[in-house]
From TrEMBL:
Region described as Disordered: spans on this chain: 1-98, 204-243
Organism: Cupriavidus phytorum
Compositionally biased tracts (Low complexity): 204-216
The protein's name in its UniProt record: Scaffolding protein
Top-level taxonomic group: Bacteria
Basic and acidic residues: compositionally biased ranges: 47-83
Length: 243
């Protein structure tokens, strides 16, 4: 009987996590993820707030410039393929498809040049406005809020007083909104009129104070005044002139 008995070694029991502990751990991980997402959103919002309006616009123009360049390169490549195909088939003949592609390439190149000029004008106006007006950034941000469109920006930035136009309208949003909804011709007329007004020298206000009283001199004499210090002949001449 004793021989049949065998030693039984107790096995180690590994504690397992309870359901409550698993739920707490999952909840902590979810909370950490939410906090990280909120922090990322806040950082993005702060970055957007700090970014000047013109900087954002310049970034858009830079992207558009490279898109226009890529489109122009693609159009030129397409035109080259047409020319090679025509050279293999009909030497010296010019067909309509080739003409259209070349015209498209020229159009894209002109668009690229126009975007570059607009970009340069925006940079120039922004630099001049920043140097003259301390609140220029706020003024152009206000214009963005009321919907400054491409026609308005092109007309304003090509003006000799573009920085004054943007600053003035950025502080008078009712007038800015009125001008922005006008057709391009009327918009140009209104901006030209405003440019002329802003370019005029400031008129000094007329003082309403009375003119200062001229003090009566006790010594010396004017050309017609009498004085005991004058020679007798001069005194007589002036005396006779006053009669």
């Amino acid at each position: 009987m004793s021989e049949e008995l065998q030693d039984v070694t107790p096995t180690e029991v590994i504690p397992t996590e309870t359901g409550a502990e698993v739920e707490n751990q999952a909840g902590s991980e979810a909370t950490a993820e939410q906090e990280a997402e909120q922090q990322t959103d806040q950082q993005q919002e702060q970055a957007q707030k700090k970014e000047p309006w013109f900087q954002k616009r310049i970034g858009e123009l830079t992207r558009e410039k490279y898109e226009a360049k890529r489109a122009a390169d693609e159009a030129r490549a397409e035109a080259e393929r047409y020319r090679q195909a025509l050279a293999q088939g009909q030497q010296g003949e010019r067909t309509e498809p080739e003409f259209d592609v070349e015209a498209l390439a020229e159009k894209k190149a002109n668009q690229k040049l126009a975007e570059q000029r607009f970009n340069d004008a925006c940079n120039k106006v922004y630099a001049t406005g920043k140097s003259e007006f301390q609140d220029f950034d706020q003024a152009v941000s206000n214009l963005q809020m009321v919907g400054a469109n491409r026609d308005f920006l092109e007309l304003a930035t090509t003006s000799d007083a573009g920085h004054k136009l943007l600053h003035h309208l950025g502080t008078d949003l009712d007038e800015a909104a009125r001008i922005m909804v006008l057709p391009p011709i009327q918009m140009a007329r209104e901006l030209t009129r405003l440019e002329f007004k802003l370019s005029q020298p400031a008129v000094k206000p007329v003082s309403k104070a009375p003119a200062p009283i001229k003090p009566v001199g006790t010594g010396g004499a004017t050309s017609t005044g009498l004085s005991d210090d004058l020679p007798i002949d001069e005194w007589m001449r002036r005396h006779n002139q006053r009669k």
